Amino acid sequence: MSGGQRDDKRNRARTGNAKGSRPSTVPDVPGIAARMAAARLLAATIDAGTPLDGLTDHEHGHPQFRALDMRDRGLVRAILATALRHRVTITKLLARRLEKPLPANATVLTHILHVAAAQILFLDIPDSAAVDLAVTHAKADPRTVRFSGLVNGVLRTLARAKDAELPEMLATTSDAPDWFVERLTAAYGPEQAKLILAAHRIEAPVDFTAKADPAMWAEQLGGTVLPTGTIRIERLSGPVAELPGFAEGAWWVQDAAAALPAKLFGDVTGQRVADLCAAPGGKTAQLVLTGARVTAVEASKNRLARLAGNLERLGLDADKVNADILTYEPAELFDAVLLDAPCSSTGTVRRHPDVLWTKSPADITKLAGVQRALLDRAVKLVRPGGRIVFSNCSLDPEEGEALVAGFLADHKAKVELDPIRTGEVAGIDDFVTATGFLRTTPAGLDIGNPAISGLDGFFAARFRRIA
Ligand SMILES: C[S@@+](CC[C@H](N)C(=O)[O-])C[C@H]1O[C@@H](n2cnc3c(N)ncnc32)[C@H](O)[C@@H]1O
């Protein structure tokens, strides 16, 4: 063994490095399996950049998650969402209790502390239970066993200090990585950026698009109808599939902002419309309902199958094409195309608090490049005179305003901006920019109560092919 390897090994033993040996058994203590799974999944998200949705999927998720019963799975999801949503606050409050910062490679120890701190600071779980389970976890893992005393001391003092320190920390901290705060501030100004960051700390409400009669379905679901026609409830009280109207396909879950791009075509009755990045199909369903003849194009076979299932439940029909739009050649050009492109998803942080910790500025640049190539292709699939709506759920101008400026400059002879106007779609006036883009943020649609306010961050622009 070289000196370097020896040092590595010693370091891992000292700090609980993730590469050390794993705990072989789960102690026979109620609640410990959920906490160990939460720390493991936090490691997968933070250290390996794995999206949380996949890890916590009931069918294909992480084995440690699937080994839990439904109640514990719910608890793990709540712990992880909280730990990620308040990651900076938790890091700073833990740091106050440590004599010196934990080394960067003390990942296992750090995740144990974060899982416990999320419970102590934000969840309705007795502090003593959160502390004891974290200590049990630390003792059960050879990488952290020698730190069980530190875990106990840090978490007990955190529990004692939280009433005095948490409000001040929340008021002075942004729960986002520095790169995101900087980009948000540059794009929206300090005041709006602050409001968006505050909105990110609150779990998003649940929105539905009804096939018809939103007022009646709002009553059935116990929600309200927003000015845009979307139905909103604060929280789900059980599985979506058990809500009234699900079985008969009366509605689907769709954020209020996500429901806007498809409306920007206006009346497309009888027209041939392509939904180019279609799955899981929320916008396809909207377009079918307007009376358009819709072709849903989707590169992923599995996701296209999901779209087909969703349309079937809703009793709606569209042509379904499994193709990459970069090579897709339709028999005939379309009257209109919607490109709801794959993006960084920074507009969905309220629902997916892992996004900010799994994505980077480099990802934004890469995804902007992909979207630009897809938009260049989308123009070629629409007939001259036809319209194109480009949308995504990113808050970053590199994927929105800047991307469109470059696109228009490069296609002057072929495409013109068809500015979106206030008043053309119910409820959108606050989201129409001076240039004629649609821009929503989680700080928009303030309806008094933060728990039922806000929208996903969305960008949309509309063009007309002129040649
Ligand atoms: C943002 S999602 C679309 C959401 C959808 N429009 C809706 O409202 O339900 C982007 C989709 O584009 C698909 N996609 C990505 N690149 C593609 C390509 N080159 N061709 C076709 N589909 C693509 C992804 O698999 C993903 O399902």
UniProtKB/TrEMBL annotation:
Active site feature: C393 (nucleophile)
Binding positions for S-adenosyl-L-methionine per the UniProt entry: C277, A278, A279, P280, G281, G282, K283, E298, D324, D340
InterPro entries: MeTrfase_RsmB-F_NOP2_cat (IPR049560), MeTrfase_RsmB-F_NOP2_dom (IPR001678), NusB-like_sf (IPR035926), NusB_RsmB_TIM44 (IPR006027), RCMT (IPR023267), SAM-dependent_MTases_sf (IPR029063)
A GO molecular-function descriptor: RNA methyltransferase activity
An example Gene Ontology biological process: RNA methylation
Region (Disordered): 1-29
Key words, A-Z: Methyltransferase, RNA-binding, S-adenosyl-L-methionine, Transferase
Domain SAM-dependent MTase RsmB/NOP-type: residue ranges: 169-466
Family annotation (Pfam families): Methyltr_RsmB-F, NusB
Key word S-adenosyl-L-methionine present: yes
Residue spans of biased composition, Basic and acidic residues class: 1-10
Domain of life of the source: Bacteria
EC number, as in UniProt: 2.1.1.176
Family that this chain belongs to: Belongs to the class I-like SAM-binding methyltransferase superfamily. RsmB/NOP family.
Name of this protein: 16S rRNA (Cytosine967-C5)-methyltransferase
